[in-house]
Specification:
CATH class: Alpha Beta
Strand content: 25-35%
Shape: globular
Largest sheet: 6 strands, mixed
Strand order of the largest sheet: 6-7-8-3-9-10
Radius of gyration: 17 Å
Helix content: 25-40%
Distance between the termini: 22 Å
Bound molecules: adenosine-5'-diphosphate, magnesium ion
Number of strands: 10
Structural class: alpha/beta
Number of domains: 1
């Protein structure tokens, strides 16, 4: 099956002042379309760096990153952002919703940015909110929702442009157990529908929810 994400011998160094931090060392990783993976590891082990490289938000110091078969190393900024917009959805620990907009408007934003007309964008946003179980919250603003609801709005938003992969950095880190379970259930459903999900998580129940579990330690994959 086709690899949606492929990393070959990827190393990432951060240089600041006279210091060099080796955040990832010779990492190899691949994931087929529709497969899911959980990345686990202690704080500072390189998890966020790994997701940023997979998502084309940053480029490796050496090695190769392929997104949907395209080698991103040589893409220009605008080519990379186009590939990112059509291929990848992002979900964050602190939801990153716009406070002044309703749930429906938050989900519509990426659609409007990619050129869909406003009315159609809002219609699709409502449909996506239905899929994450929030039909009754479409006109609520973030401060009128629970953390779990806000994260489901963010997941609906990540699905707006029909991505091939969802990348989530500690998406349950700010949720109680019940809401975390709802988010993990939703990711499982999303990956069953053929969209790959890669998530960084501390949740110890992960093996029931993801096809692959990858451990990172000091920038190296240990299993
Ligand atoms: N922009 C940066 N500049 C310098 N060092 C960084 C930067 N981002 C991350 N690091 C360092 O790289 C290592 C891995 O960080 P990170 O990927 O954020 O790990 P994790 O998400 O597992 O906590 C850490 O030592 C961190 O301090
Ligand atoms: Mg991190």
């Amino acid at each position: 099956m086709k690899n949606i994400i492929e990393l070959k011998n990827v190393t990432k160094e951060y240089r600041s002042g006279g210091n060099t931090v080796l955040a990832l060392k010779d990492v190899d990783f691949d994931l087929s379309q529709g497969e899911s993976a959980a990345i686990v590891g202690p704080s500072g082990s390189g998890k966020t760096t790994f997701l940023q490289l997979i998502g084309g938000l940053d480029t490796p110091t050496s090695g190769e990153v392929f997104i949907n078969g395209d080698l991103i190393n040589n893409l220009k900024d605008d080519e990379l952002s186009r590939l990112r917009n059509k291929t990848i959805g992002f979900v964050f620990q602190f939801f990153n919703l716009q406070d002044y907009y309703t749930a429906k408007e938050n989900v519509a934003i990426p659609l409007i940015i990619s050129g869909k007309d406003e009315k159609k964008a809002l219609e699709k946003a409502e449909k996506l909110l239905g899929q994450v179980g929030l039909s009754k919250r479409v006109d609520h603003k973030p401060n009128q929702m629970s953390g779990g609801e806000m994260q489901r709005v963010a997941i609906a938003r990540s699905l707006a442009n029909n991505p091939k992969v969802i990348l989530a950095d500690e998406p349950t880190g700010n949720l109680d157990k019940d809401n975390a379970t709802k988010v993990l259930d939703l990711f499982k459903e999303i990956s069953k529908s053929g969209v790959s999900v890669i998530t960084v998580t501390h949740d110890t129940r992960i093996s029931a929810y993801f096809d692959n579990v990858v451990s990172l330690e000091d920038g190296e994959i240990t299993s």
